[in-house]
Amino acid sequence: MRVYNSNQIRNVAVLSHGGAGKTSLVEAMLFDAGHTNRLGKTDDGTTVTDYLPVEIKRKVTVSTTLAPTEWKDCKINLLDSPGYADFVGEVKSAMRAADSLLILVDGVAGIEVMTEVHWEAADEKQMPRLIFINKLDRENASFYKTVDALRERFGSGVVPMTLPIGAEDKFCGVVDVLQKKAYQFEGNKISEIPVPPEMEGEIDKYREALSEAPAEGDDDLMMKYLEGEALTDEEINHGLHAGVKIGKVFPVYCGSATKNIGIQPLMDAMVDLLPSPVDVAEENIGSGPLTAIVFKTLADPFVGKLSYIRIVKGVLKADSSIYDVNKEKEERYGALLVSRGKNQDNVEEAKAGDIVAIAKLMSVSIGDTLGEKGKTELQPGVDFPEPTFSVAVNAKSRNDEDKMASALNRMLEDDPTLHFVKNPETKESVLTGMGETHLDIIIDRLKNKFGVEVTTKTPRVPYRETIRGTGDYEYKHKKQSGGHGQYGHVKLRFYPLPEGDFEFAETIFGGSVPKNYHPAVEKGVRDAMAEGVLAGYPMTQIKVELYDGSYHDVDSSEMSFKIAASQCFKKGIEKCKPVLMEPVQYVEVHVPEQFMGDIISDLNSKRGRILGMEPHGKWQLVKAQVPLSEMYRYAIDLKSITQGRGYFSMNFDHYEDVPNMVAQEIIAEYQKSKEDKE
To answer: What are phi and psi for residue 312, nearest 5 degrees?
Structure first.
């Protein structure tokens, strides 16, 4: 592939709800541009962009894939992105690299959940958009119903540029509204045909809308339009380009990706109407220090780690070195790669606005800024959502525990929406992602790629124990054996501690317990606190005072006092009203207005406390405190309640006492597990 100038580049993320046909559309574009000699099919696992084993197996896109396409002396960097909410992190990466969006809508299903989610994300970033209504060859498909729904939901800026000829199984071509020309398609060939007479009325109707919309992007055109003057085709095109650029006009095209109908007019529009990197830049991007952003990394089985890079400014050349501003580290690299699915071609250089890949940049991470040391300014990274769905994972074979951890840590490099930690309190390995499907795929990769089979379960809640009363106790550890015996005698007082985890004090007078044994007493207490008296959870917020005891000149030792203190604590703490505490999370839930009642009711059923509600753009923000034990499956519950529209974040807030009925259940379960082990 040749080197393209910045004004010849279009960076387009292809987005939709799952199943709308993104991958098939990209496949048709590649075919029409001559990059492939046949149309691959998702069902057959033969598409260029869905090439990962898990994508072929499940017939869904799980990873954003780059597919550069050459069309009309331009390079269109297509970013085929997942359509399911569990993989929204991949969508965020694609949007960071793109200048424009192509949003697919299923002509049968109409506007779906992720269509709205992507649209709202685009509105926030004011990104230019084209719309493609797909699957018009299917039964019950309706172009006009879909257009009406789009205009009702997203405004009058939604303007059809092509209209379908025929419907369902008789769909065979499209009419260009602006030019009033009709086209039919065969293979990758397009030919003009007479405009069907019965369509004249619809064409005129939508051409009028097409004259109005461009005026939104240009004041001079607006005046001309308001004065009743007809706009020329050139003026309309100019106005469309301006309106698209500022996110006020959204041209609509139609077709069938699998039948390769209506694709070429769409590709023409991507070149003619969508902005280049030069158009969206606030400064001259062709000069100045090299600046680039890493928006994706991938472990490629043939070339190793691939870092996908959007060049923001300057020129990137092959066989050079590059400075990671975030890591403050310089790395050498060899070839510049133009990736199309799993295949790569070499280029000698890439100019500002282009997207390339570099192999084996070992220290580079997603979101890093690359460039020249001391010259390149740090760029905004990728705004990834926090993962919210957790499972505890264990390797089926104990010998695979280290292998599992190593494999998961490798996957973390390529997926910032995946977290993996060893919880020191529960001693569990906890894997957190965006949802069930996300983690299912990770576990599938563990088995098929790394040869590690794992079991999963709901993570244990890191409960803690404390006391609400005061008390004291004494314990004498005395043991005689051959030679030296063991003797340690302590008297301890116990107090609730309002702040802090633990405090140790000694108020001994007269040396009843010598000072050299005080550290051993404290150590014995700390060891005993690691396992509470109610349900075996660590104890916290306790003050322990050593106020008396005794010792033996010969038989006393640090170990004797450590044992005495430990036993004294375990027995004495039972007299101090021990209670079980649970972690409570601060939760923020973003939902459309119509789901507010259901959300509040659901949070109340989870023992949540509503702290407040406030408007957040077109949505509502609900703030609450909810016990962690109730939140492990909330990602699934929220998806169900809001039809996939809602999202949430949570962070640890505080510990508080578990309600008595709930505590009794936890304690009973603990006692039963102890008995089963015995």
So the answer is: -90, -40
Chain-centroid distance, C-alpha 224? 46
The answer to whether 159 touches 249, Cβ cutoff 8 Å, is yes
How far, in Å, are 89, 332, 385 from residue 415 at the CA level?
A: 8, 24, 11
What pLDDT does 459 receive?
A: 95
The answer to whether the CB of 259 falls within 8 A of the CB of 266 is no
Contact status, residue 580 vs residue 535, Cβ threshold 8 Å: yes
Complete domains list, the chain, with CATH = 6-280 (3.40.50.300), 291-371 (2.40.30.10), 389-453 (3.30.70.870), 465-576 (3.30.230.10), 581-661 (3.30.70.240)
Task: Check: CB of residue 351 under 8 Å from CB of residue 6.
Answer: yes
Confidence check: pLDDT of 304 > 90: no
First vs last Cα of the chain: how many Å apart? 70
Give dist(CA 638, CA 641) in Å, integer: 5
Q: How many CB atoms lie within 10 A of CB 510?
A: 6
Q: Residue 297 carries which DSSP code?
A: E
What does each C-alpha distance from 236 to 163, 249, 455 come to in angstroms? 18, 12, 60
Sequence-ordered list of residues with C-beta below 8 angstroms from that of 530, at least 6 positions apart, any chain: 538, 539
- Position 426 scores a pLDDT of 86
Non-local CB neighbours of 313 within 8 Å, separated by 6+ positions: 283, 285, 286, 287, 288, 289, 290, 291, 352
Using CA atoms in the order 346, 347, 348, 353, what is the torsion angle rounded to 10 degrees? -140
Reading the block at residue 517, the tokens are 């044994």
State the average pLDDT over residues 387-409: 93
CA distance 214 to 253: 16
Judge whether 570 and 533 are in contact, CB under 8 Å.
Answer: yes
Please report, as a single letter, which amino acid is at residue 585.
Q
Distance CA 229, CA 140 (A): 40
Please enumerate in sequence order all residues whose Cβ is within 8 A of that of 455, keeping only pairs 6 or more positions apart, or say none.
Answer: 393, 394, 396
| 297, two tokens | 């990394």
pLDDT band for position 197 (cuts 50, 70, 90): very high
Residue 475 corresponds to which amino acid? Answer: Y
Tokens of 450: 């790394």
Residue in this structure with the two tokens 């570099």, named with its chain if needed? 358
Pairing state of beta strands 542-550 and 502-506?
A: parallel
Mean pLDDT score of the chain, rounded to an integer?
Answer: 93
- Asked if residue 552 lies in contact with residue 588, where contact means CB atoms within 8 angstroms, the answer is no
Work out the average pLDDT over 104-109: 97
Q: What is the token pair recorded at 586?
A: 């601060």
Q: In this structure, what token pair is assigned to residue 88?
A: 């929204």
Give which of 221, 266, 214 is closest to 244, Cα–Cα: 214
| Portion of the chain with pLDDT greater than 70, in percent | 98
Contacts of 599 (CB under 8 A, 6+ apart): 589, 591, 622, 638, 641, 642, 646
CB 581 within 8 A of CB 501: no
Query: 271-302, pLDDT tens digit by residue?
Result: 999 999 999 998 889 888 999 999 999 988 77
